Each structure stands twice: as C-alpha cells, then as structure tokens.
Amino acid sequence: MMNECKTILGFPIFNGSREALRAELERRAGQVSGPLCLFYANSNLLQLCHGEAARFSEPGILIANDGVALNLAARLLTGTPFAANLNGTDFTPYLVRTSPIFRRVFLLGGQSGVAAGAAATLAASGVEVVGHADGYGDMTDEAALLARINGARPDVLLLALGNPRQEQWLLAHRDVLDVKLLVGVGALLDFLSGRVPRAPRWVQQLRCEWLYRLLGEPRRLLRRYTLEMGRFFWLCLRDRRGGEGA
C-alpha cells in the first residue's frame, strides 16, 4: 500500500518512515521506464522551483522531506508533521548500504577530491562504489561524462551540485542515463569526504543542524536561511489562505 503524501506548495512530499521510503523506491524502480529520481525537498528547493510542481509530480519522481522548515510547513498546511525526518544526509547512505537493488553507486559533484573522499568513506562502510567524478573539470565534456557513468553500470547516481541545479541536471539527462536511481544529494559528498563537518549528534537531535551549518558557512547560507526561507513561508501562508477561501 502506498504511503500518503503531504502536498507543500503543490509538491507531493512522501510521508512515511525511512524503511517505507526504501520500499517505495524499490517498488517504483520496477515499474517506471527509465531512471527513477529521488529529490530531497528543503525550503530552498521548493521556493526556487515554485510554479514547477507539475514537473516534479510524475510517477518517476519521488520527493522526500528534508529539514525543519518542511516539518513546520506540514504542520501549517496539513495540521500534522511528517512521520519521519528523511534528510538526504542520513537516508542516502542508509539506502545504498541496505537496499538489495541499489547497490552499485557512482558519485558526481563537489570540488576536486571531494567525490573521491566521499567514495572512500562509502566503500569503507561496505558500499560498492563503481566510479566518481568532480563537479567542475569532469563535467566540461558532457558526452564523455555520460559515457563514463553508463560504462560503470551503476544502480545509483548521487549528484551533488546544490539545488535546484542538481535536480534540473538529472531531469535533463535522465533519458540518456542507464541508471536505476538518480539522487540529488546537496552537501552529502562534502560531509562524507570530511571537507565540511556535520553537526554533533546532539545538535542533530535538537533539529538545529541548519543553525550549525549557518554559523559555519554564513556567507554562503545566510540568504538561504533568512530571505529565501522567509519567501518559502510567505508562499505557504498564501497557499493556506487560498485553501481556506476555496
């Protein structure tokens, strides 16, 4: 039985446990033609792609909630939070370590050396990494890159370009990628490689990892966590008022 989705700004966001999300990905992978896409929706992605929800709503795309802002939006718009925190930093490694069909992984993105460092970390945990490429020089020759990915025969492509660039790239190239699952992973490769430290476990449990990241990278993240998040909640409030007036 399919889990229900919560609709946030027109985007259907999966609502269930991490085990249920893994099962749903495995189920859909056998039903869609071409690669399945997994995107992690944070407030930044939804406000930047507002108005494109229909493009993200087809059966070959599954969206998981990522971040405190999505949970607050769910409470605001549906009355209840999401069943679980399915952020990509935790769920993606869990998926490729435990799924019987998403075993072979190719990593793409990040600065020079980041994908290689992340690949070493995943391999040390038992994941079968079949290739990696950085997000700069290795992406200049697109035809060669696509041939390299397909030649490695991965089950999963993890792409770290930041949103919405990574989601747009995957949607634009999914028809020429011979991969079961395409995942936009944001900062995951930076975390796995050690280039950017994750918040301590107690900070994660308090759901304050966003604040830890903001303090560590204020120049890059200040706008995201102020103006852009403010626009996200304004859009949510506008949707709520529209629904109440319908």
From TrEMBL:
<keyword id="KW-0328">Glycosyltransferase</keyword>
<dbReference type="Pfam" id="PF03808">
    <property type="entry name" value="Glyco_tran_WecG"/>
</dbReference>
<dbReference type="GO" id="GO:0016758">
    <property type="term" value="F:hexosyltransferase activity"/>
</dbReference>
<keyword id="KW-0808">Transferase</keyword>
<dbReference type="InterPro" id="IPR004629">
    <property type="entry name" value="WecG_TagA_CpsF"/>
</dbReference>
<protein>
    <submittedName>
        <fullName>WecB/TagA/CpsF family glycosyltransferase</fullName>
    </submittedName>
</protein>
